[in-house]
Automatic annotation (TrEMBL):
InterPro entries: NACHT-assoc, NACHT_NTPase, NLR, NOD1/2_WH. The chain crosses the membrane at residues 109-133. The gene is LOC122132745. GO terms for molecular function: ATP binding. The lineage of its organism: Eukaryota, Metazoa, Chordata, Craniata, Vertebrata. It comes from Clupea harengus. Keywords: ATP-binding, Leucine-rich repeat, Membrane, Nucleotide-binding, Repeat, Transmembrane, Transmembrane helix. This is Protein NLRC3-like.
C-alpha cells in the first residue's frame, strides 16, 4: 500500500497516515548499508592511492630498478587513472618536470613488460621448434635402428632388434698396451679369466657414475674385437633413447660411422655442415659453444678410420661454423674444443683404441661378447624350433673351439646358420667341429644363395663360384695386407669383382648403404668378421698354389711386425684348408 493512503488503527480509531512522520524500515537499512559501503570504499581508495603514490615516489628516485610486478588484470585501469590524477595534481602544483619524469618512467616500465612478453613468446616457439626437431630426429633414428640385419644387409631379411637382442657383457677397464695377440686368441685367453675380476656395466649406463666416482663422464671409449657386439650395442643405446626408455636427459644423439666419414675425407666443411649432411632434420637449429643442449656424438668403428687424426699437429678450432678438413674437425670434437659440453662415445677394436690421447678419455669400457648364459639365450631367440636350438647348443658345447668362438655374436649367427641347416635336415653328413670346417660350410651355403635367388644358373654356377671365391679371396688377401677391414668400390674393381655380383654373394661380402638422402651416397663393403676375411685370404693362397702353382706369400719380403703377424695368421689356417677343400668339392658336386 502506498504511503499517501496508508492508514493504521490507533486506540480503535482510524487515523490518516502522515508520510513525513513514518519511515520505511527497508529503506533505512539500505541507507545504513550504503553508508558502510562508502566508508569501506573510501578506505580502499585512500589505501590504493597512498600505495600508488609511494610507488610513483620510488620510481622517481635515482636508484630505482625497473622490474616486473605481479598485478591483477583489472587493476590496470585503476593504476592508469591514479597515474593521470597524480600527474594532473603535480602539474597544478607547478611541478611539470616531475610529472613528465613520472610519465617517462611508467612508459619505460610498460615497454619492459611488453618486451618481456615478446621474449617469453619467442622462447616458447623456440622450445616448440626444438621439440619438433628432436621428435623428427628420434623418429628417423628409430626407423633406422629398430631393425637389425645379422651379417647380410643386402638380403632383405631383417628382424626387430627388440626381439632378437641379447645383452652382451661389458666391463670397465683402462687402456693398456696394445695386445699383439690374435683376436681369436684374445677371446680364448679372456674365457679363462675367473669371473668377478672386472666391473660390469650396462650399455645404457656408460655415462653414469659408478659408486665412488664424482667427476662427470664426458668421453667414453668402448673397445672390443671384431664382431663382438660393439655396433649392435650402439644401436640398442640409440633405439632406447629414441623410444624414451633410457638417457632422457640427452637432447640429441648424432651417430657417425667412420666407414661413412671415410667417403667425405677430401671435403672441406664445418661441424654444422657435417651434421646437416647426415641429419637434415636439424638444419633449423644452432649449437652455441656452451651447454644449451645436451648432445652425444657417437663415432663407431675407429679401427675403420682412414683419416690421419693428428692430435698433435692439427690446429685448434672452437667455431662450429668454421670450414676446415674433416680430420681437423674430428680431432677438435674429440679434444673438446668444439662443443666442449657434448658427450662423446667412440667404439674401436683394441689395437686402434690407443689413437685417442688418454687425456681425452674419461672412461674405457670393453665389450666381452656373450657369456655362457647369453650364448644359449641368443640361440633360443635366433632358432624358433626349440628342439633344434637345443641340438645346436649341445653340439657347440662338444667343441671347445666353437664354444669359445661363440663369445662373438657374429660367429653365433654363422653357427646358427650352418648348424641350423645341417642338424635340421635329414641325411646328415659330417657336422663341422672346427672353425675352418664351420667357415667351409658357411662358404658353401652362401655361394648357393645365388641358385636359390635366380633361375637358370645351375649350369654356370661352378664357374661363377670359382671366379667369385678367387676374387673375394684376393680382396681379403690384399686388404688384410693393408690392415683394412672395410673397402670401397674401387677396391673391389681392382680385384676384378663386379659390384652387382658382390651383392648377390650375400653373406660373404656385406654391402652397406646409407638410407638417408644426402650430398654423397656410396657403398661400403666388409666381410662379416675378421676371421672370415683371414679364412678367405688363406683359401686364396692355397688355391693359387694348388691351381696355378704360385707361392704368393714368399713374394712378399716386406719386414715389419704386421706383415709377419699376418703371415703367421695365414699359416695357421693353411694346414686345414686342404681338408676343407675336399669337403667343399664334395658338397658342391652333391648339390650341383
Amino acid at each position: 500500500m502506498l504511503l499517501s493512503t496508508q492508514c493504521f488503527i490507533h486506540r480503535g480509531q482510524m487515523q490518516e497516515c502522515n508520510p513525513d512522520a513514518v519511515s520505511d524500515p527497508f529503506t533505512k537499512s539500505q541507507q545504513e548499508d550504503l553508508k558502510h559501503i562508502f566508508q569501506v570504499l573510501e578506505e580502499k581508495i585512500i589505501t590504493f592511492v597512498k600505495n600508488e603514490l609511494k610507488r610513483f615516489k620510488m620510481m622517481l628516485t635515482p636508484d630505482y630498478q625497473e622490474h616486473f610486478e605481479s598485478k591483477e588484470e583489472d587493476e590496470s585501469e585503476a593504476r592508469e587513472g591514479a597515474l593521470k590524477m597524480a600527474m594532473h595534481f603535480l602539474r597544478n602544483m607547478k611541478l611539470k618536470d616531475l610529472a613528465d619524469k613520472l610519465q617517462q618512467k611508467t612508459y619505460k616500465l610498460f615497454y619492459l613488460i611488453v618486451g618481456g612478453l615478446k621474449n617469453m613468446i619467442m622462447l616458447f616457439f623456440s622450445y616448440i621448434g626444438e621439440l619438433f626437431v628432436q621428435t623428427e630426429l628420434k623418429r628417423n633414428l628409430k626407423k633406422k635402428y629398430q631393425s637389425v640385419f645379422e651379417g647380410i644387409p643386402t638380403q632383405g631379411c631383417s628382424a626387430l632388434l627388440e626381439k632378437i637382442y641379447t645383452e652382451v657383457y661389458i666391463t670397465e677397464g683402462g687402456i693398456g698396451k696394445v695386445n699383439e695377440e690374435h683376436e681369436v686368441r684374445q677371446i680364448e685367453s679372456r674365457s679363462k679369466r675367473p669371473a668377478g675380476q672386472e666391473t660390469s656395466i650396462r650399455c645404457s649406463d656408460i655415462f653414469k657414475l659408478l659408486p665412488g666416482e664424482d667427476e662427470p663422464i664426458r668421453s667414453v671409449v668402448t673397445k672390443g674385437v671384431a664382431g663382438i657386439g660393439k655396433t649392435v650395442s650402439v644401436q640398442k643405446f640409440i633405439l632406447d633413447w629414441a623410444e624414451g626408455k633410457e638417457n632422457k636427459d640427452i637432447h640429441f644423439i648424432f651417430p657417425l660411422l667412420f666407414r661413412e666419414l671415410n667417403l667425405m675425407r677430401e671435403k672441406q666443411l664445418s661441424l654444422m655442415d657435417l651434421l646437416h649432411h647426415f641429419f637434415t632434420e636439424i638444419k633449423q637449429l644452432t649449437f652455441p659453444s656452451q651447454g644449451k643442449y645436451k648432445v652425444l656424438f657417437i663415432f663407431d668403428g675407429l679401427d675403420e678410420c682412414r683419416l690421419q687424426l693428428d692430435f698433435q699437429k692439427n690446429e685448434s678450432l672452437t667455431d662450429v661454423t668454421e670450414v676446415t678438413s674433416l680430420d681437423v674437425l674430428l680431432t677438435n670434437v674429440i679434444k673438446g674444443n668444439l662443443l666442449p659440453s657434448a658427450l662423446l662415445w667412440i667404439t674401436s677394436r683394441p689395437a686402434a683404441a690407443n689413437q685417442i690421447p688418454p687425456e681425452c678419455v674419461d672412461r674405457v669400457t670393453e665389450v666381452q661378447g656373450f657369456n655362457d648364459p647369453q650364448k644359449e639365450e641368443y640361440f633360443r631367440k635366433r632358432i624358433s624350433d626349440q628342439n633344434l636350438a637345443s641340438e645346436v647348443i649341445s653340439h657347440i658345447k662338444l667343441s671347445r673351439s666353437l664354444h669359445i668362438m661363440c663369445h662373438i655374436p657374429v660367429f653365433c649367427w654363422i653357427a646358427a646358420t650352418v648348424l641350423g641347416v645341417i642338424l635340421g635336415s635329414s641325411g646328415v653328413g659330417q657336422i663341422p667341429k672346427t672353425l675352418t670346417e664351420m667357415y667351409t660350410y658357411f662358404l658353401i651355403f652362401q655361394t648357393k644363395q645365388r641358385s636359390l635367388k635366380f633361375e637358370n644358373v645351375h649350369d654356370l654356377e661352378p664357374q661363377w663360384n670359382q671366379e667369385v671365391i678367387l676374387g673375394l679371396g684376393k680382396l681379403a688377401y690384399e686388404q688384410l695386407e693393408k690392415g683394412n677391414l672395410i673397402f670401397y668400390e674401387e677396391d673391389l674393381k681392382e680385384c676384378g669383382i663386379d659390384v652387382r655380383e658382390a651383392a648377390v654373394c650375400s653373406g660373404i661380402c656385406s654391402q652397406i648403404f646409407r638410407e638417408e638422402s644426402g650430398l654423397y651416397q656410396g657403398k661400403v663393403f666388409c666381410f662379416v668378421h675378421l676371421s672370415v676375411q683371414e679364412y678367405l685370404a688363406a683359401l686364396y693362397v692355397f688355391l693359387m698354389m694348388a691351381v696355378e702353382g704360385k707361392d704368393i706369400i714368399s713374394r712378399h719380403q716386406t719386414p715389419g711386425t704386421s706383415i709377419q703377424h699376418w703371415k703367421q695368421t695365414v699359416s695357421r689356417w693353411s694346414p686345414v684348408i686342404k681338408k676343407s677343400m675336399t669337403i667343399l668339392h664334395k658338397n658342391a658336386v652333391d648339390k650341383a
